[in-house]
Design brief:
The protein is built from ten helices and eleven strands. It has about 350 residues and is α+β, with helices and mostly antiparallel strands. It folds into two domains: about 90 residues; about 250 residues, 2-Layer Sandwich (Alpha-Beta Plaits). The strands form two sheets. The protein has an eight-stranded mixed β-sheet with strand order 2-3-1-5-4-9-10-11, with helices on both faces. A three-stranded antiparallel β-sheet has the order 6-7-8. Strand 10 and strand 11 form a beta hairpin. It starts with a helix and ends with a helix. The relative contact order is 0.11.
Length: about 350
């Protein structure tokens, strides 16, 4: 498995040279792509060099161990360190989702449960926004339809990282595990009798597509404009500024009504449409891909219930990985990393098992 590193070292050296050229940075999109790949390869090469160095150190310590027992003990410690480096290298070499280095488009929609579901959708968006803050990411609301009590019937947000991030640490690489049905058990604010209700909200996560990622023929688009349906009194209600774009060949629809101008809403709707088309292409590839991709946690049916939030017990349970904790209040306040880590670990384990079988 480690034989592949030699080719990666050559690519790493080539990228280092390209990134030193002024013309590379004249194209910001290209520079970002090359920097992301360079970061991925740097992690692999650095770990491989450490693994190699530890082998030399172990050999030297064993030779000296014949003279001084302290060196024999050091050889034992170095062997354990090399095993850790080998495991880290194996994980880095596991084939990654090509979109893992991208930012994410996050859609939260209310489901069964009426107004309570819309309020829960708002809680989920707040959870993701707080989590994004802890990682230094930005969250931009692209489109939202509010409910009467301040929840969301539907909300779409772009989650973006700043600069180049480490492999597996980009917004899509982590948030992709959030796609599915999230179930909540609590006493709704609309319930006067204090009875616990169960409702749900759906989350869709797709990689944010760059214009170069998806080719869209203008002739394949149907664009409709209409009056925005936001809360009364806002300027968005006074003109036909909302935009709905339909990609006729696929039937995929994207709309936006949050901005004041029709042009701005069209630009935002196109961002959403590109990402949905990229996700649809990825889903089609996943359905025909090898077992190593089909076994990923993220490929579960998006209609499947993935998690339960039980307020009475302050409990959160992930039904895919078996993760359970009793700090729901902290998770909803942005402490989402341990939950996501359980998904990442299950994903990596499944990939490794598929490669070794």
């Amino acid at each position: 498995m480690f034989e592949a590193v030699e080719g990666m070292r050559a690519e790493h050296a080539d990228l280092e040279g390209r990134l030193s050229l002024p013309e590379t940075h004249a194209d910001q999109r290209l520079a970002k792509q090359l920097n992301q790949r360079y970061a991925e390869l740097t992690a692999v090469v650095t770990t491989w060099l450490e693994w190699q160095r530890l082998a030399d150190d172990i050999e030297a310590a064993r030779e000296l161990g014949a003279i001084d027992p302290a060196f024999a003990e050091e050889a034992h410690t170095l062997t354990a360190q090399r095993e850790v480096a080998a495991e880290r290298l194996r994980r880095l070499l596991v084939p990654r989702d090509p979109a893992d280095g991208k930012d994410a488009l996050l859609e939260v929609k209310s489901g069964e449960g009426g107004e309570e579901s819309a309020l829960f959708a708002a809680d989920l968006l707040r959870m993701y926004s707080r989590y994004a803050e802890t990682r230094g990411w930005t969250v931009e609301i692209l489109d939202a339809t509010e409910s009467e009590l301040g929840g969301f019937k539907s909300v779409t947000a772009a989650v973006k990282a700043r600069g180049t991030v480490e492999p597996g640490q980009a917004p899509y690489a982590l948030l992709k595990f959030e796609g599915g049905v999230h179930r909540v058990q609590r006493v709704p604010v609309t319930e006067s009798q204090g009875r616990v209700h169960t409702s749900a909200a759906g989350v869709l996560v797709s990689p944010e597509a760059e214009p170069v990622d998806v080719t869209i023929d203008d002739n394949d688009l149907r664009i409709d404009v209409y009056r925005s349906s936001g809360p009364g009194g806002q300027s968005v209600n006074t003109t036909d500024s909302a935009v709905r774009i339909t990609h006729v060949p696929s039937g995929i629809v994207a709309s936006c009504q949050n901005e004041k101008s029709q042009l701005q809403n069209k630009e935002q709707a196109m961002r959403i449409l590109r990402s949905r088309l990229l996700q649809a292409a990825q889903d089609a590839a996943d359905s025909e891909a090898s077992e190593v991709r089909r076994s990923q946690v993220r490929t579960v049916d998006r209609s499947e219930r993935i998690r339960t939030y039980n307020f009475a017990e302050n409990r959160i349970s992930d039904h895919r990985t078996g993760y359970k904790s009793y700090n729901l209040d902290q998770v909803l306040d942005g402490d989402l990393q341990p939950v996501l880590d359980s998904c990442v670990e299950a994903d990596v384990a499944a990939r490794l098992q598929a490669l070794e079988s």
